[in-house]
Design a protein that fits this description.
Helix content of chain A: 25-40%
CATH topology of the largest domain in chain A: Rossmann fold
Number of strands of chain A: 22
Distance between the termini of chain B: 28 Å
Number of domains of chain A: 4
Strand order of the largest sheet of chain B: 1-2
Number of helices of chain B: 15
Structural class of chain A: alpha/beta
Oligomer: heterotrimer
Radius of gyration of chain A: 28 Å
CATH architecture of the largest domain in chain A: 3-Layer(aba) Sandwich
Helix content of chain B: over 70%
Radius of gyration of chain B: 24 Å
Shape of chain A: elongated
Strand content of chain B: under 5%
Largest sheet of chain A: 6 strands, mixed
Chains: A alpha/beta (567), B mainly alpha (373), C mainly alpha (326)
Largest interface: B-C, 55 and 54 residues
CATH superfamily of the largest domain in chain A: P-loop containing nucleotide triphosphate hydrolases
Chain lengths: 567, 373, 326
């Protein structure tokens, strides 16, 4: 490694809209022939910065110098002229084309000859140690093979500076090892390599130097050999900031949702949830910390019944004890069946025996709240659809990450969005808009949703108001379990606090709240307990009141192998 | 400095962004403007291509629709038929299921009707025959629509191509049965004497009443029923549908049964109440025109009354223009209606997108090059 | 034996109409656009071609022998140009204005059939004799074809446009499979965002594909009138039926021009079979019409049930591409 400068960022600033500043006055150098890790939490501006190098975005302020000369990079094409190539997280490949066809796609100054191209691909592969079949179609490939195609695509165009955005996120440990061998080979060949990552063990293993960004600002660059994971974590997460969130002590906390050994492989065959076990307790907020994409989304969707796990149990303790039976939750038939099993008692404590009693009488007993549950129900929610879960009488609310794509329908008004949860109730044919309309009005006034009326399409509201509507709807059913994925993402401070308060209130009402977040300060100030997930595994369970940021940060970036050896 | 000049050169003359929102009056204004512009072009073409005074054309169009009482009734009847086909298509379209098979679904409905009329007409009391006709036509239409729906739901088979092919299979079937049931020397079935649907008041009224009932029914179905609500959710976002536990496959299949059944009903009206026979052209291409009707009205059942009326008004009027000015074939009518379509289709662009024209702004060039949205 | 040969020759004559339509539509669909205006565009091409024939024949003095080259050249160019009017409207609406493809296509078909009827009503007055002379030129085959027995009849007895279609199909197959232009076009139809990122001008490719596709379809219309239908124009709706079958053929040929050649002849055989098979009753003749559509449906079902990646429509078919949609 020499100290010739390949890339210099000089005062780079980039803002999206008027509020979000993705990069602020970032200045640093990248040397020729080094592997530089760009380290930072989610939303720290790593990808945005690199996108400016690759011509996807153009900086608002500041200059980029390539090999000492000022460069104006306005398109990916310009980037190629400066021999810069970026491998994005989402691959840009044509599924029905072969590897070679994808690699040569869009190259103008070369005769189209797949045979020759394949030969050159072979040479590149041999030089750096890739394994690739140029004739294999993309749709027949594994994720790692697709990544190989993307890397070769960049090399084929003669890139000297390669940017890899989270290249290891989709790979197995063995594939990561292979990738690192290739990266080292490329470094030996004089290529400059920048990898965006937040996995500390990989940073330590592969990079020469580490540049750290925090909340859009450049923190510093250190030589890998002279630092430690702990020091890097400190730079990455910064000092703990006390937030002004009221955190009450949990009351009457008992096990509500027990997750046992949940395993899930996604369609690509990647193990997304690996033997996950934890317990969510009533009256507390359980935080889920982790780098985004570590399996949080799948975890919540599995609990909600949207994903079928490959193994494990989801046990729900339904706190029914000493509560009257309702016909809303149980059909007459179910009541009769449960009575035989001895699940009910009369208010005076005597067991319920329904044999010989007419349906009409049973109905009256229920209406008069004369039939009371003996004990809590214990139900396995695994392999139940969302509808079946609801039919079991489990009040499980879910605020998904994708608000307008899943939780709400953007083109519908607030009232119709309220109906998403409740439309099945009541009249068998027609929907009832009266109750949802009341609910909408209630949410608008109680949560101070800024909207022209309850008949405004949701997509016209601001992000914070959209989220208030969604959370408002989900908590309106007095949930026993409330799951919220990144509920404050993209919201301003005031809206965020409104959401924190709502979650805390639910906890005080006895719900088991599961909060998936990315801001460690928030997690540490809001949650009673925190589980940390990394690579689909639970790497630690911490007390929200005593844990510190570095501790969480380290667990978040912990490698699965280490977990095994540590245990 | 040369570099920054380059940036400016790259800045395109205009760029397009999606509108998030447009006030109702503005979108209405654009649509009305498009129709007026289309009519203006028609007037110009009439005078240039055909050498006819455009005002005479417009007068003839009106005369063609309102000239005699019969013409007026036919206008209403044909509007009613077209409206029902259009209505039949919208539940599917709202789910983003492209049912291009309206023609076929109408045809099999007519085929079933004629079969019942032929074999049961006169054999059983009229009332019973009518009920059987209704059931047969509705079921036939439903089957024709549900086959592509099942494959779409389970195998994601391309529904627009599938339903399109089903049209021609239906057409060939009708040709076959016309041949084996034909009564005279020519390849046609004489109007059936028995089993015809009753006439209420005049021969046109039954169809109009049925259409009115169906319009109200569908408007209520889509807006106030649980099924209608599920259709909207599935059409807007399948992810949301799954999130709240809607069985998407079931909704697709159920909706297409409804869609096909309504088309089958049009077949019943055409064969049972109007033509009393059938041919390969019984559907009068309404499966396609119905798409226009639905599209122009943005899938709103009530506005569709207007779009169906508008299209039939133009068609009938142009037919009259052709006769009156001695133009053979349906050339003029199709050209004019095609032109109007173009304008109305094109105006949607101006409703959903906004064009920003960059007037030599020097400083802006760099900013907008970031191009994020 | 002799009968069969005549039938095969007729079947080829019909099949080539489908082939033109199918090739044009394949090209269009490869760019991600399902053009349901193809039947109308075929009518427009037919009308344009006939107009060209009429204009050229009008310039000749009485009894003068028309030049084979000029007649074909002028009429083919005009057929392509007229068809391109339809193609241009379609491309402008669906590519530039991002309008719904299905609706636009159907509107084009309505417009095209009317347009064709109008043009033909002007041409028709002198159709009889002129077309009768012109059709001979279109059908003119190699002089020695007749001397080569069945081989000559089946393979060499056709007019120029039959061979032109087959050459076009092979050329298209080659272009799509072996050239950079073909690769880029397929990328545009499969995944326009990727193509855009790779520096391919998506809009230009779409426009060119739609226009060239329309021109090919238009020549098909001309071929129908002058060759297949023996120099007579009946009405637009007859030709529309050919157009819809051509769209079916695209599915049957699983978007491959080389398959389309065989498919078109098969469709041609199905089309004429009712009249060709002896001893068949008329009812069965009618039912034969179902087969081209039925096998198309079966192909469609098979390719989707088995999710055969090589036989799928372009992934971007029917979707509008807007760069800022992300």
């Amino acid at each position: 490694m020499n100290n010739e400068i390949a890339v210099r960022f000089d005062g780079i600033t980039k803002a999206f809209g008027s509020k979000v500043v993705a990069n602020k006055d970032v200045t640093f150098d990248i040397y020729k022939g080094e592997i530089l890790s760009l380290l930072g939490e989610n939303g720290s501006g790593k990808t945005t910065l690199m996108n400016m190098l690759a011509g996807i975005y153009y900086p608002d302020k500041g200059k980029i110098f390539i090999n000492g000369e000022e460069a104006v990079i306005t398109s990916p094409h310009d980037a190629f002229r400066y021999k810069i190539g970026m491998i994005h997280q989402h691959f840009k490949l044509v599924d029905v084309f072969s590897a070679a066809q994808n690699i040569v796609l869009g190259i103008k100054d070369e005769k189209y000859n797949i045979k020759k191209a394949s030969a050159r691909i072979g040479e590149i592969a041999k030089k750096y140690g890739f394994i690739i079949d140029p004739n294999k179609k993309i749709h027949e490939m594994s994720v790692s093979e697709k990544q190989t195609v993307e890397i070769i695509k960049v090399l084929y165009r003669g890139a000297d500076i390669l940017v890899l955005d989270e290249p290891t996120a989709v790979l197995t440990p063995q594939e990561i090892e292979k990738l690192f061998v290739i990266l080292r080979n490329m470094r030996r060949d004089g290529k400059t390599i920048i990898i965006i990552t937040h996995k500390l063990n990989e940073v330590m293993e592969i990079s020469d130097r580490v540049a750290i960004l925090r909340k859009g600002e450049y923190v510093g660059t250190v030589e890998t050999s002279r630092t430690s994971e702990k020091a890097l974590t400190e730079m990455m997460v910064g000092q703990k900031i006390e937030l002004n969130i009221d955190r009450s002590e949990p009351k009457n906390s008992e096990d509500r949702l027990i997750i046992k050994n949940i395993t899930y492989k996604n369609r690509e065959g990647v193990l997304v949830l690996d033997d996950v076990s934890f317990t969510a307790r009533s009256g507390e907020i359980l935080g889920v910390a982790g780098i985004s994409g570590s399996g949080q989304k799948e975890l919540l969707e599995t609990i909600a019944g949207l994903i079928k796990p490959d193994g494990g149990d989801i046990i729900f303790h339904n706190p029914k004890k000493d509560k009257p039976v309702t016909l809303f939750h149980k059909t007459l038939k179910q009541v009769k069946e449960l009575a035989v099993k001895g699940c009910f008692h009369y208010p005076d404590g005597s067991p319920v025996n329904l044999s010989g009693i007419s349906d009409k009488q049973i109905k009256r007993l229920i209406d008069e709240e004369k039939i009371i549950f003996n004990e809590d129900e214990i139900m396995d929610l695994r392999n139940k659809t969302p509808l079946q879960i609801r039919e079991l009488g489990v009040r499980l609310s879910f605020v998904p990450e994708d608000r307008l794509g899943m939780g709400l329908v953007g083109n519908m008004d607030i009232v119709d969005n309220m109906m998403l949860r409740s439309y099945r109730k009541g009249n068998p044919i027609f929907v009832d808009r009266k109750k949802p309309s009341d609910l909408a009005d209630k949410i608008i006034s109680e949560l101070q949703v800024v909207t022209p009326s309850s008949h405004t399409p949701i997509r016209r509201l601001s992000g914070g108001n959209v989220q208030k509507v969604l959370v408002g709807r989900e908590i309106s059913y007095a949930p026993k379990v409330l799951m919220a994925a990144y509920p404050v993402r993209g919201l301003d401070i005031n809206s965020s606090y409104a959401i924190y308060n709502l979650l805390t209130k639910q906890k005080e009402n006895g719900a088991a709240v599961i909060f998936v977040g990315e801001d460690l300060d928030v997690l540490l100030s809001l949650c009673d307990r925190i589980i940390v997930i990394s690579g689909g595994q639970i790497t630690g369970v911490l007390d929200g009141r005593t844990a510190n940021k570095e501790e969480v940060g380290l667990l978040m970036t912990k490698h699965s192998k280490e977990v095994e050896t540590n245990d | 400095m040369t570099n920054s000049n380059k940036t400016q050169q790259r800045e395109p003359l205009f760029h397009i962004t999606k509108r998030t929102d447009i006030p109702l009056w503005k979108s209405l204004l654009i649509r009305v403007g498009a129709i007026v512009l289309g009519l203006l072009i028609i007037a110009i073409i009439c005078s240039i291509m055909f050498g006819i005074n455009p005002f005479a054309v417009f007068a003839t169009i009106i005369e063609g629709n309102f000239g005699t009482e019969r013409r007026f009734w036919i206008l209403l009847q044909d509007t009613a038929l077209l409206l029902v086909v259009g209505l039949a298509l919208i539940p599917a379209f709202k789910m983003k299921f492209w049912n291009l098979g309206g023609n076929g679904q109408v045809l099999v409905g007519a085929l079933a009707t004629v079969a019942v009329m032929k074999f049961l007409g006169g054999e059983l009391p009229d009332g019973i025959v009518w009920v059987i006709m209704l059931l047969a036509s509705v079921i036939a239409g439903a089957i024709w629509a549900v086959i592509p729906a099942i494959f779409k739901a389970f195998f994601n088979t391309n529904e627009s191509l599938f339903t399109l092919m089903m049209n021609y299979i239906a057409e060939a079937l009708v040709l076959y049965f016309v041949y084996i049931w034909k009564t005279g020397a020519s390849d046609t079935i004489e109007p059936m004497p028995m089993g015809n649907l009753p006439t209420i008041g005049n021969p046109f009224l039954l169809t109009i009443i049925v259409a009115a009932i169906i319009t109200v029914f569908l408007a209520i179905y889509l807006k106030f029923s649980k099924h209608g609500y599920e259709i909207s959710v599935v059409g807007e976002s399948q992810n949301t549908a799954k999130y709240i536990g809607i069985n998407v496959k079931k909704v697709v299949i159920r909706t297409l049964v409804l869609s096909g059944a309504m088309c089958g009903l049009v077949g019943l009206l055409l064969a049972g109440a109007i033509d009393h026979t059938m041919s390969a052209t019984t559907a009068q291409n309404m499966g396609f025109t119905g798409i226009m009707v639905a599209w122009l009205a943005k899938f709103n059942p009530i506005i569709m009354v207007l779009s169906a009326l508008g299209i039939q008004f133009l068609t009938k009027g142009m037919g009259r223009v052709q006769k009156k000015f001695g133009i053979t074939s349906d050339a003029v009518s199709n050209i004019m209606i095609g032109l109007i379509y173009f304008f109305v289709i094109a105006c949607e662009f101006f409703i959903s997108y906004k064009i920003h024209i960059n007037l030599k702004s020097k400083n802006k060039a760099k900013n907008s090059d970031g191009g994020n949205k | 034996m002799g009968d069969y040969i005549v039938h095969i020759v007729t079947a080829i004559g019909v099949g080539i109409v489908f082939l033109y339509g199918c090739l044009g539509e394949i090209l269009t669909e490869k760019s991600g656009h399902l053009n349901l205006g193809i039947p109308g565009i075929m009518c427009m091409g037919a009308a344009g071609g006939c107009y060209g024939v009429s204009v050229y024949m009008g310039t000749l003095s009485n009894n003068a022998e028309p030049s084979w080259f000029l007649l074909l050249f002028i009429s083919i160019i005009l057929a392509a140009l007229f068809a391109c009017i339809g193609g241009l409207i379609y491309a402008f609406l669906t590519v530039s204005l991002r309008c719904n493809q299905n609706v636009t296509g159907l509107a084009i078909t309505t417009f095209g059939s009317g347009f064709a009827e109008y043009v033909m009503s002007m041409v028709k007055s002198n159709e009889g004799t002129e077309f009768a002379i012109a059709k001979l030129k279109f059908k003119a085959s190699l002089p020695f074809a007749g001397n080569l027995g069945w081989f000559g009849q089946i393979f060499l007895s056709h007019g120029f446009l039959v061979y032109f279609a087959i050459v076009l199909a092979i050329l298209m197959w080659f272009t799509l499979k072996k050239t950079r232009i073909g690769l880029n076009l397929c990328a545009v139809g499969e995944n326009p965002a990727t193509a855009d990122a790779a520096g391919i001008n998506v809009t230009a490719y779409k426009y060119v594909a739609i226009l060239v596709g329309s021109a090919i379809v238009g020549v098909g219309g001309l071929f129908y009138v002058m060759d297949s239908n023996n120099g007579s124009w009946e009405n637009a709706s007859t030709l529309l039926a050919y157009g819809w079958l051509a769209i079916a053929l695209v599915i049957f040929a699983v978007w491959k021009p080389n398959f389309a050649i065989l498919g078109s002849i098969l469709f041609g055989i199905f089309y004429i079979a009712p009249n060709a098979i002896k001893g068949i009753d008329l009812a069965t003749m009618k039912i034969f019409k179902i087969f081209p559509y039925l096998i198309t449906v079966i192909v469609l079902i098979f390719t989707s049930v088995f999710d055969s990646k090589n036989a799928q429509p372009p992934a971007g078919l029917g979707l509008t591409y807007f760069r800022e949609d992300r």
